Amino acid sequence: MFISIQLLRVIACSLVLFSHIDPYLVSSLNRKFSGGGIGVDIFFIISGFVMAAATSKTDMGIHSALSFFIKRIIRIWPMYAIITVVFAYEMNYLKFEYIDLPYIIDSLLMLPVSIHNSMYGDIFIDPKLGVGWTLQFEMFFYFVISILIILKIRKPYIPALIFAVPILFNLRPVALSPFFSMVSCPILFEFAFGYWIYSVYCKYPSAFQLAAPMLIPTGSALIVIAMTGDWSQWYHNTPRMIVRFGDVNLHRAIAWGVPSAILFCGVLGCEEWIKKSGVISRISVMIGDATYSLYLTHILVFQWMLRHIPTYPTSSIFIYIVTPFIVALIVHFLIEKPITKILNDIASKKIRLPLKSKIA
Asked: What is the span of the domain harbouring residue 216?
């Protein structure tokens, strides 16, 4: 297990959480964290790195690919489905939204969905649980890795080449299916960043250690600058993919992906120091394990708090930040971890899952 990866998960999820506090708090503090969505980009790089590590020594072939994909489904889908259903019920109970069964089913199946907009044409819409849009990209990445396992390909540059092919067909705005809009989005390169970083790290770990004192402040400064951009812009018919700095438009993979990759490399270079840090190491592991639950549940927690805790004074900020972490730890240990273990045990008996890496 890379403790530095766990720390990066905590950082990434915290940034996402801060970005979603905006609608719930009346405070000037909101503006400082409005770009916290960059945490998603850090997550995508982490995912690329982790998947490269998890599959680096596994057997190749159809059985291994099937085992890998089933394990990823077990890791992602059950908790996502549970929270999606709870969220849909909550929205209906609060009279914010009605139950749209076809939309919920599409969301549960993690299918990209579009609607027609008079201004933009056919556009992506988020699944019922808004953060689920990132999991759609994750599952496609897992599918690509499964194909590489079947084809017995380990070359670190191959994922980038695979992602580049549909992107080249989407250089001009055209009418696209929701699925092709997703698979032709350059944000997928962030998974390739992580995949490639792992291959370099395996060969030159000491280079990361030597460069860490430069990479961490550089990456952090670039992220702070990147967070000042307006990230609500569209890439063709896909939202949140263009970051605008004044008159300059950059794709998210460049504006946010590159700074995230630099910070990632810097923190990775501190792996040995973080392992020996004691408190930081233990907290990183504990909260890092629960970040998926935190990512899925924090909006639900905010909704509940909005009904019971005033959004002012400023002291409420502390409560709004701490409570999602507490709930996430409870959900992780009482629901996510037992369900994942039970399903993995069942799958292991049925198809003999070969991937036991704790890093995944």
From this structure: 3-351
Residue 129: its H or E element? none
Give the neighbor-by-neighbor strand order of the sheet with 238-245.
Answer: 230-235, 238-245, 248-251
Asked whether residue 359 is assigned to any structural domain, the reply reads no
pLDDT in tens, 24-45: 665 544 444 567 889 999 999 9
Is residue 39 situated within a structural domain?
Answer: yes
Is residue 162 assigned to a domain? yes
At 69-93, the pLDDT tens digits run: 999 999 999 999 999 999 888 777 6
State CA 23 to chain mean position distance: 21
Helix (H) or strand (E) holding 157: none
Does a structural domain hold residue 357?
no
Among 255, 274, 160, smallest CA distance to 216 is for 274
Average pLDDT of span 171-185: 66
Rounded-to-integer distance, Cα 266 and Cα 259, Å = 11
| Total number of domains constituting the chain | 1
